[in-house]
Amino acid sequence: MNDLFLNIEFKAGKSYQQQIREKLVELITSDQFGDRPLPSSRKMAQQLGVSRNTVVLVYESLVDEGYLVAHERSGFFVNPEVKQDSQFNLVQLHPQQQTFAPKWNQRLSTKPSDFSTLDKDKAWMSYEFPFIYGQIDTKDFPIYQWRECARASQSRNSLHEWVEDYVDADDPELITQIRQQVLSKRGITAQPDEILLTMGTQNSLFLLASLLSNSNTVVGIENPGWPDFHHAFHYAGAKTKPIRVDEQGISTGKALKGCDYVCVTPSHHYPTTVTMSMERRKALLQQASTDDFVIIEDDYDSEVNFSESPLPALKSLDTNGRVVYTGSLSKSLSPGIRTGYLVADKDLIKELRALRRLNYRHPPTNNQRVTAQFIAQGYHDAHIRRMRKVLESKWTLMDEGLKNNLNDCRVFSTPGSFCFWIELPEQLPSQLLVEKAAEQRMLVESGDKLFAGPNPPRNYIRLGFTAIAAEKIEPGIIMLGDLIRQLSGSCHRRKNAG
Prior knowledge:
Elements: H1 16-29, H2 41-48, H3 52-64, E1 68-71, E2 75-78, H4 80-93, H5 104-107, E3 129-130, H6 143-153, H7 172-182, E4 195-198, H8 201-212, E5 218-223, H9 227-235, E6 239-246, E7 249-250, E8 261-264, H10 278-291, E9 294-298, E10 323-328, E11 340-343, H11 346-359, H12 365-376, H13 379-405, E12 410-412, E13 419-423, H14 430-439, E14 442-443, E15 445-446, E16 460-464, H15 470-497
Parallel strand pairs: 3-14, 5-6, 5-8, 8-9, 9-10
Antiparallel strand pairs: 1-2, 4-11, 6-7, 10-11, 12-13, 13-16, 15-16
């Protein structure tokens, strides 16, 4: 039994006390001790190579929480009440084989797992050159300021502001901060009843698709574009229509005829980074009114835009209520914050709120209050100002490196964007490059799944730079350029030989 404790491998990020406690709770709840006493604090400390006081504090905390009981001169034992719960858990962990279990595949009305997904390597931090989009360099996160706001919002005097059930309401303080400090910077004016908090842009889109779609609904979506635009509306029963994107943004005119909704990323098109021109924005808004469709704006990549004169949000130009706006704090702070917001007519927000209540009532109120504090204290704006400098410097390194080392490729990027869209030589499949790059500790993303329609091109990749350290950009780009030339020549020779 005691040998089990020798298997604790202490890891950075948690104290010894935390890790010992977690291991003991795991062993206690799986009834590994039975009626035997736990090892003495002295023996446990020797086994683990920690101070005796560390083990004593863990034992005492487990007594306080009711996991252990202390018997004078006999040591620490598992609380009998916990043992009863553990025995029940063991029964649940090893149920008898059920012959009459339901056949779930026959009961599913749809299979979301069949939808194509972007290949996101969960071990991205293990790569020396992570040229990926959607992640951050953890060194850039304002941990001390965030921690300060968390402590303030979770103080006893503030506890009542977020521990209660809000039912379907949002934290009024966060709504105020988003109105005054976030939306205003995008040129958007909105009343509190025109804003709904969500768990991010993807959640916002899913709510909209679920509420607004049926089998007769047609949705125009940029091509190439975000696959989950298609998936969310397909799941809701709608038809999607790929719409070509040019150097000014999504095509207008005949291409949008028959659409009920049009999804756009005007600040920086996903994934080509094209910024929709003011002329195209006006044309899109005019056609929305003329042809009676609604625009769903994903203000993608706008939060930390470091371009000298970023255009205002499409929603800010909307005078007819034709734009539903979705935003997020994921890019400016962290994907893990999971805080998004919808801005739309109050009647639509009312129904979206009711639909959200059926899903999860509201986002966690403790997260809402910490985020509200973070914005109110000025930390969000300060962080954005700092990140603009960091990301502009990285963008410049990427731009120079790609110009010098990827001469055989077409490179697309707009200042202020967080990635570069690369057209590889025609004979080089992007998936082959992704696989070979990984062997050299480079993580790049194929663009294959970002195209809709028949016979999509297979020679595009996307290079992000938010997660990679600045000093790794130039050597990584040099290695990538060498690999592209090597693979391109090999593919060309095979093609000629065939």
